Amino acid sequence: MEARVKLLGHPVHQMLIVLPLGLLTGVVIFDLLHVLGVGDDMHRVSYWLLPAGIVTGLLAAVFGLADFTKIPRGTRAKRVGAQHGIGNVVVVVVFLLSWLLRGDPDTAPETMALVLSFAAGGIAMVTGWLGGELVDRLGVGVDDGAHLDAPSSLKGGPARGAVSGR
To answer: How far is residue 126's CA from residue 12's CA, in Å, rounded to a whole number?
Structure first.
């Protein structure tokens, strides 16, 4: 099932998810470094990664929702897609709460802000797996004619065609 919104032949949602994934994973890593006492500024890095990860997560969600509406009802992909999407909204909200509890970048985060950050990171691992399941196992967001010798997406045509070596 092909993605609803593409840019240069590739799904926009799949392009965007690397941003919040990387930024919010960075929050967890820098919070952990802060807890371990590595450096004096680790909490400041987390503070500024949070809004960037939240905003890009919401942007990716818009395109994910557009793709979700194309998945047929009653399919496993629709159920997994719902879990993935709802779970990622929870992830963004929990990271947002963590950010709001921090107050300002110069103040070390309270324990609850750190707990929320680590919890959101754990949930994100599950929702990331669900996203992988959608693409790799269920073929959501994959060109309907995808194969090992498909022409470049920049050519503008479909990937359909003869598959060599089969």
So the answer is: 21
